[in-house]
Amino acid sequence: MQFLYNDDPIVACSSGNTSNSAIAIIRLSGFDEISVFQDFLSIDTNKIKPRKAYYCDLVHCGEILDQVVAVFFKGPNSYNGENILELSVHGNVLNVNRILDIFCDHANFRLAYPGEFSYRALKNEKLNLSQVEGLDLLLNANSQFALQQGFSLMSGSLQKSYLKLHKSFLNHKSSVELSIDFLDDIGEEEGTRQLRESFKLLSNDINSLFSKVSGDSSKLINPEIVIVGQPNSGKSTFFNLLVGEERAIVTEIAGTTRDYISENVLVDGINFRLVDTAGIRSSEDSIEMEGVRRALDLVSSSFIKVLLVNPFEFDPHYFELLNDISFDKVLITHSDREGFDALNEKLFKVPSFVKILENIKSPENPGLQMIGSIGANAGSGSIGANAETGSIGTNPESGSIGANPESGSIGAKPESGSIGAKPESGSIGAKVETGSIGAKPESGSIGAKVESGSIGANAGTGSIGANAGTGSIGASAESGSIFDDQEGRVLPRYTHSVSMVDGSRVAVSLITSYAAQKYGAAIADEPILLKRHQQKIFESKRLIDEYSQLMTFETDISIISSELNNIGHCISELIGIVSADDVLHNIFDNFCIGK
Predict the structure, then answer these.
(1) Which of 127, 228, 358, 554 lies 20 to 30 Å from 409 when distance is taken between CA atoms?
(2) Which of 50, 54, 52, 53 is nearest to 77 (CA)?
(3) How far apart are alpha carbons 357 and 327 in whole angstroms?
(4) What is the DSSP letter of 450?
(5) Is the model's pTM score more than 0.85?
């Protein structure tokens, strides 16, 4: 970046000049004296005092260009340590560009590069590197959490935590140096005590920060929801539902989407990037295959991964390409079409698809959903709902086999079990109000009326044969069982049936509510978002742990002191005392012009 070593006077519109606004702020920096603006302002510049606002005309060659408010910030008591003049002008884009051109053409200023004002603040020690990164995060935040952490890095608790770590390091280093030069004065016992206590504080501080970087939080700055699937699985239709407009082209022709398209969607104050990808299949079209490659790259690195499957059109071979990906949601589409149940059962016997389901690792995540295209009930599910109410291997509060004594079936306590239960609640031999075999019409399965489930279940929990309010195979998202495959394995299949037409609001809420829930869980422990900070904390933690071992076995204090210098360098990089040029390039390339 050229501007890193260029001290020319610079000018920029700091409030943005891409659209008309009431007021725009033009910022000029790097000039020697305020008197250089005498020919451009209608007031005597020698009488301008720092940090006071002056209403005046902006003129050029005797022509009044605009009526402005001018504020002068004299260096070094300014944002970047240089003389700065800020002009509040009328925000028409044409007016802003005209004023910028005049200062560049007639006052020896040049247009500023992105982030150049902040770079000069860093160079003049008005900000350190960590604060600049916080400013970058603040300006480009996609969520309230990222916004707050950006501010916290600038002047808040996170920056104070970094400075506290550095202070603990300096205290420990002082104890080491004291033991080298003044051990005879303070005594060996006192020197050892100070070493141990100061190192304990240093270790506690790095462990506190390390707890905030243990997970992968890099995806939280710009979280993505990526939709992937084979052609004709309904990706573009679902993308349009989430966006709320016909953004993606939807046709019956397979492979309509050749490259990915994206839009931002705001969910509970979090700005997610929603991505619709090319269909996963083989093609002779090199452009389409490049789109498939990009789709796989995008979904593997995304925050939320969504797979759509059409049981009427799928190739088992291409499921294998997705077997290493742990999806958040698997949506089975077209559940309203005739013949869905038979094809869906066949789908669940495909080993490569079963492998995808087994990778849905979180038991509390209702990962597998079913989505009809027309006519499916919006409030219903099919096979195996979430962990709160399932049957086999479910949450202790509500399962059947191996469940909590309050509600289980086999082996449950007398108040609620099935086999051998007391007359009030069991199934075999139970009272007619609640049993399954031979039960009265209101509740049983064999011969039961349509309001209820399969084997003794009610309308809210049944599986096969449930009423129209509970979908195709299985229960609503609040309940259901778990489907065994042909080899008798229990699979983590959590389902929900919803129409992509009649139930579009429910379909959208499946993803948006989960996205907000997952993001909220990810930030619960206030993770540190910036990758460079994560790396430096990891490195500092490793060096401090190695140093701890050295202190245990090494008696030569000079060797200990030498190793301690490596820790100091790493911590200094964390708080921005020292930095590499490539880090500066990455940061300031991301800044807006005028900041």
Answers:
(1) 358
(2) 50
(3) 8
(4) T
(5) no
